[in-house]
Amino acid sequence: MFVILVYDVNQKRVAKVLKKCRQYLNWVQNSVLEGEISDANLKKLKMELEKIIRNDEDSVIFYCLRTTKYSSREIMGLKKGGDENII
Amino acid sequence: MFVILVYDVNQKRVAKVLKKCRQYLNWVQNSVLEGEISDANLKKLKMELEKIIRNDEDSVIFYCLRTTKYSSREIMGLKKGGDENII
């Protein structure tokens, strides 16, 4: 499936969270990653993030798209990340 | 359509961008908004944002979902925004 991940975590944990997410997804923009990921890997990523983030301070949102047939992405302004996986 | 908007703009323009986006979408998390929006309003929002952001410094991404039938949203950790429009 295609996942858009957005995180909002304490500065102390940003580097760790970003590093972990980049193992599975492509960085798009400050605090946003996206990409194709298997159910198994998504589960793994969530488990690993759970060990890093603090539930009372941090927030991570996963938008899971079973298909990208009905979606598109548009960027206004600066294009920051790579676009290997444009939907 | 359903839109997920993520912005990464210079601190100087954050308040203006957020205020403008909130006129059309629901705030979910730091720099993320989402919601149902008509084609006409999306066009309007883009035109208005174009006047606020600087193309060489700022970035705004729109993920447009023609249907939310194939998508889901999951939040880990803190739930910050409202959830009037959970997909």
UniProtKB/TrEMBL annotation, chains A, B:
It comes from the Bacteria. GO terms for biological process: defense response to virus; maintenance of CRISPR repeat elements. The keyword Endoplasmic reticulum does not apply. GO terms for molecular function: hydrolase activity; metal ion binding; RNA endonuclease activity. Mg(2+) binds at D8. Its EC number is 3.1.-.-. Keywords: Antiviral defense, Endonuclease, Hydrolase, Magnesium, Metal-binding, Nuclease. The keyword Magnesium applies. Pfam families: CRISPR_Cas2. PANTHER family: CRISPR-ASSOCIATED ENDORIBONUCLEASE CAS2. CRISPR (clustered regularly interspaced short palindromic repeat), is an adaptive immune system that provides protection against mobile genetic elements (viruses, transposable elements and conjugative plasmids). CRISPR clusters contain sequences complementary to antecedent mobile elements and target invading nucleic acids. CRISPR clusters are transcribed and processed into CRISPR RNA (crRNA). Functions as a ssRNA-specific endoribonuclease. Involved in the integration of spacer DNA into the CRISPR cassette. NCBIfam families: cas2. Homodimer, forms a heterotetramer with a Cas1 homodimer. Belongs to the CRISPR-associated endoribonuclease Cas2 protein family. This is CRISPR-associated endoribonuclease Cas2. It comes from Desulfotomaculum copahuensis. The gene is cas2.
